[in-house]
Amino acid sequence: MPDSVDERKPGQGTGYRERRKKARMEPCHWCRATAPFVWHCRCGLRICQTCMDENFWGLSCNGITWVCPDCGDQNGFGNQ
Ligand SMILES: [Zn+2]
Ligand SMILES: [Zn+2]
Predict the structure, then answer these.
(1) Distance 70 CA to ligand 2 centre (A)
(2) 40: β partners
(3) Which stretches of sequence are listed as region Disordered (predicted)?
(4) Please, which residues have CB less than 5 A from ligand 2, an ion?
């Protein structure tokens, strides 16, 4: 019984081309904008650099750490 097996899968073998590195764009909790870089709190809060700049006076008292407005935890700058 001749069965015609035709398993041609279009695109097969080119899957690796889909695996290009994409920058992780994460949404900011405040402005909802996605940014390639966001500050993370261990509670999961994310703040983009723009919001951090705008609220720097309220988030950081020493320029070394910033206080998460959500959980009140201290997070260090440059300690990502
Ligand atoms: Zn933001
Ligand atoms: Zn937090």
Answers:
(1) 5
(2) 46
(3) 1-22
(4) 41, 43, 45, 68, 70-71, 73
